[in-house]
Amino acid sequence: MNVVVTGGAGFIGANLCRELASHGSIGKVVALDDLSTGSAANLAGTDVELVEGSILDRDLVGDVVAGADAVIHLAARPSVPRSLADPFASHEVNATGTVRVLEACRRRNTHLVAASSSSVYGSVTDLPKHENLPTRPLSPYAASKLATESYTLAYAAAFGLPTLAFRFFNVYGPLQPAGHAYAAVVPAFTDAALRGRPLTVFGDGHQTRDFTYVGTVARVLAEAVLRRVTCPNPVNLAFGTRVSVLELAHQLAKTLEVTIEIRHEAARRGDVRDSQADDGALRSLFARLRAVPLEQGLADTVSWF
Ligand code: NAD
After folding, report:
1. Which residues are catalytic?
2. Can you give the CATH number for the domain in which 66 is found?
3. How far is Cα 45 from Cα 263, in angstroms, rounded to an integer?
4. What was the pLDDT predicted at 175?
């Protein structure tokens, strides 16, 4: 089985490519990535073939996907703040780029697994977030990820394409970059704590997130293509653990055995208040799944830093 991973040189993509490449029943793994936020170094020392280019390039996507039995579509312009700075760029990659990938898959009825985001729930306050809840995006990023999953499911309904759309929650783990303005909370906190700098918390820190270890995400995605799993509805990919940003900071301090200083800044526009997944649909599709607890995931993450 040959698998293409769009965004395969990024944080989740490179962890996934490594998982796929170490799997006996998977032949060739190709990462299609424009290296805008990803890096070739993330794939160093693996057998993964890196094709450098954009999912917006119709001919390139057609050529790369033609040799694949399955495509895992992760390429995106990520981050809420980035989308507030340039909404059109997020739309172009996350929505139009997804249609490009779907069109290439449609030619040979190639199985497609796509990454959506918990941010699509937006201002809906019900917890846990069940896939049947309405979606009310609070940012252009969230709207563009809703487009990613809507197109993915619409291609299944309209053309019979075998597809699966996951809503990732807050994924963390090795290879997640720190030290830039759009860094995610786990690497940003880890980097600050290791440098003895204050940890910046936006808002009161009582906002909650469902943190998911990247190794678990990679295993689910690999199993999804191996078993050719499809679903007509989006599926949450998280395990219903609700941890506040302040709790995360204190757990990290414990893991690193350091004292930390917390500095509060104004809450960020577009951020959701609480996030916790209902994992019923995920567990019904992937019965043998075991989640990595936050304590263990953080220990693995900091040892990579
Ligand atoms: P990332 O930035 O590390 O990965 C995205 C990858 O896509 C990068 O390697 C980037 O270079 C590549 N890319 C961007 N535009 C491209 C284009 N036009 N053509 C080809 N490649 C392009 O981010 P990530 O955290 O690994 O996110 C992977 C996916 O998961 C994204 O779709 C993101 O929206 C989704 N997601 C992530 C999280 C999370 O917590 N990390 C949460 C929800 C959803």
Report:
1. 141
2. 3.40.50.720
3. 39
4. 97
Give the chain's domain count: 1
> In this structure, is residue 13 part of a structural domain?
yes
Query: What is the mean pLDDT, run by run of 10 residues, along the chain of 305 residues?
Result: 98 98 94 98 98 98 97 96 96 98 98 97 96 96 98 98 98 94 93 96 97 98 98 98 97 97 94 94 96 96 94
Q: How far is the CA of 113 from the centre of ligand 1 (A)?
A: 14
**pLDDT confidence of residue 278:** 98
SS3 string, 23-52, reads: CCCCCCEEEEECCCCCCHHHHCCCCCEEEE
CA 10 to centroid of ligand 1, rounded, Å: 6
Query: Residue 138 belongs to what domain range?
Result: 3-171+213-239+278-291
Per-residue pLDDT, 272: 87
Distance from residue 35's CA to the centre of ligand 1 (Å): 10
| 49/26 Cα distance (integer angstroms) | 13
Do the Cβ atoms of 252 and 297 come closer than 8 Å?
no
Query: 50 CB under 6 A from ligand 1?
Result: no
Is the minimum distance from the CB of 278 to ligand 1 under 6 angstroms?
no
Q: Which helix (H) or strand (E) element contains residue 150? A: helix 140-159
181 falls within a domain: no
Q: Is the CB of 55 under 6 A from ligand 1?
A: yes
Residue 228, pLDDT score: 98
Q: In sequence order, what are the beta bridge partners of 29? A: 3
Please report whether residue 23 resides in a domain. yes
Q: What is the DSSP letter of 293?
A: P
Does some domain include residue 245? no
Contacts of 158 (CB under 8 A, 6+ apart): none
Name residue 140's amino acid: P
Tokens of 213: 């270890």
